[in-house]
Amino acid sequence: xxxxxxxxxxxxxxxxxxxxxxxxxxxxxxxxxxxxxxxxxxxxxxxxxxxxxxxxxxxxxxxxxxxxxxxxxxxxxxxxxxxxxxxxxxxxxxxxxxxxxxxxxxxxxxxxxxxxxxxxxxxxxxxxxx
Length: 130
Hints:
Layout: H1 2-16, H2 23-41, H3 46-54, H4 60-69, H5 73-101, H6 116-125
Helix pairs in contact: 2-4, 5-6
């Protein structure tokens, strides 16, 4: 009997595995690559860094892509410095959530830091916008 169950599971995996790549996923990957290359190849434009600073920053996968692609060490350092500042602020908010979870401070309630865990996940995995 166990042999039959494994056989069925293998067959299900084969059936659910696409034979070709989804054309939408392929196009999306091309667009993401083009955007990362645009950011990486245009570090001489001050407005690019200003626009990034005005935003929440890049998620780690896209930041990694820009760092991997750029040839400008100064731009790369400015980009890393900016993101490290953002990460430090989220880290501080996460520490505040932990502190307020302590029974001695639970009455303080969560403030602006309440969504820090969601912001941290967005940095690691990217933010999904529907």
